[in-house]
């Protein structure tokens, strides 16, 4: 019999890619959940149920109804500056809600896969492996680390997929990402300042979804770094994006983070070493250029 996976945040970028991937696999029955209506146009191959994960009773109700073998929590407050200025809402969604989900997973003996971030690190000595010591410098990072610790202290079977700067395209997206932002700005002939003093291993949303699904399929417990493997600055990512889409690079101005005043601090040098995921999961991400090509094909369709 097909095993049930309950996904939270299915309207999000990662959520949509997971719906696409898991709904096509007959070994699993997918229950996609997000707050409010289902915003995906493809409604076939899975069940949708609205779920606000900050509502404890709602989490219990939905978990009691479906009793899934697996839960993937992709819902979160992901806007780093918003987390800094709306700390209570951030804590409620990124920490308390994870407590509710973990408790419900304990009741139903469900395996919980939670998605975390490179922002749990201070960015002084990246790239990081899974054993590196976290030291967040933003409220978002603090909240995501607190959520990780809930899983680690729990008695459930758990895995944490940590990722970095996710890019991709999906339907009705609530926020943009580096590739889409650069592409749109240059198409609109708008000058953009892009920093050259931060370092990341940007992650194609499809790769992250596949990494998460591999964790579920292998029931791999513990922490996994699931990111791209190219170590790039945002400025380099912008140049590569312009080159791929044949857009005018003169609108990209090389800048540094001192020139920006943002509510939340950004860690300068993160990025992940992904050897564990390659070895244990058979994970193999696209290069950044290949990733842009995947996205470009979808831009034509969406
Ligand atoms: N994006 C990145 O660069 C990045 C980097 C590192 C780690 N991560 C982590 O990766 C995971 C997925 O991120 P993403 O990029 O897919 O984020 P996203 O596109 O912002 O998706 C998050 C989804 O969560 C939903 N949501 C918000 N509040 C909710 C609630 N109370 N109940 C249920 N659903 C709720 C949002 O709904 P609405 O669409 O209705 O707002 C949204 O669809 C997150 O855990 C994030 O922390 C992301």
Characterization of this structure:
The chain has ten helices and eleven strands. α4 (87-108) runs parallel beside α5 (139-153). Helices cover 40% and strands 17% of the residues. It is of the alpha/beta class. It has helices at residues 13-22, 56-66, 80-85, 87-108, 139-153, 178-187, 205-218, 234-245, 275-281, 288-301, and strands spanning 3-8, 28-34, 47-50, 70-73, 111-117, 158-163, 166-167, 192-195, 203-204, 222-225, 252-255. The strands form three sheets. The chain has a seven-stranded parallel β-sheet with strand order 3-2-1-4-5-6-10, sandwiched between helices. The radius of gyration is 19 Å and the shape is globular. β1, α1 (13-22) and β2 form a beta-alpha-beta unit. It has a domain at 3-169 and 203-227 and 271-286: NAD(P)-binding Rossmann-like Domain (Rossmann fold). The model has no long low-confidence stretch (mean pLDDT 97).
Helix and strand arrangement:
Elements lengths: L2 E6 L4 H10 L5 E7 L12 E4 L5 H11 L3 E4 L6 H6 L1 H22 L2 E7 L21 H15 L4 E6 L2 E2 L10 H10 L4 E4 L7 E2 H14 L3 E4 L8 H12 L6 E4 L19 H7 L6 H14 L1
Parallel strand pairs: 1-2, 1-4, 2-3, 4-5, 5-6, 6-10, 7-9, 8-11
Helix pairs in contact: 1-7, 2-4, 4-5, 6-8, 8-10
The chain binds NADP nicotinamide-adenine-dinucleotide phosphate.
NADP nicotinamide-adenine-dinucleotide phosphate binds next to helix 1 and strand 5.
């Amino acid at each position: 019999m097909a095993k049930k996976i309950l996904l939270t945040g299915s309207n999000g970028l990662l959520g949509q890619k997971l719906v696409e991937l898991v709904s096509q696999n007959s070994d699993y029955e997918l229950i996609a959940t997000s707050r409010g209506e289902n915003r995906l146009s493809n409604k076939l191959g899975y069940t949708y149920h609205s779920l606000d994960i900050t509502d404890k009773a709602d989490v219990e109700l939905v978990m009691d109804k479906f009793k899934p073998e697996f839960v993937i929590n992709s819902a979160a407050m992901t806007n780093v500056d918003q987390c800094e200025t709306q700390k209570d809402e951030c804590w409620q969604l990124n920490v308390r809600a994870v407590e509710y989900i973990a408790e419900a997973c304990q009741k139903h003996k469900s395996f919980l896969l939670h998605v975390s971030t490179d922002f749990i690190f201070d960015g002084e000595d990246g790239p990081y492996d899974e054993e590196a010591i976290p030291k967040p410098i933003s409220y978002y990072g603090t909240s995501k680390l607190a959520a990780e610790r809930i899983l680690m202290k729990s008695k459930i079977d758990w895995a944490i997929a940590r990722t970095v700067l996710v890019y991709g395209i999906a339907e009705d997206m609530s926020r943009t990402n580096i590739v889409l932002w650069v592409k749109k700005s240059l198409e609109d002939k708008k000058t953009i300042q892009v920093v050259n003093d931060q370092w990341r291993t940007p992650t194609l949303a499809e790769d992250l979804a596949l990494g998460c699904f591999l964790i579920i399929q292998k029931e791999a417990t513990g922490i996994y770094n699931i990111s791209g493997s190219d170590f790039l600055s945002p400025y380099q990512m912008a140049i590569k994006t312009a080159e791929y889409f044949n857009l005018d690079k003169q609108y990209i101005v090389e800048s540094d983070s001192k020139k920006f005043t943002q509510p939340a601090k950004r860690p300068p040098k993160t990025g992940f070493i992904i050897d564990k995921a390659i070895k244990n999961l058979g994970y193999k991400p696209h290069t950044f250029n290949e990733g842009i090509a995947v996205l470009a094909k979808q831009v034509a369709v969406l």
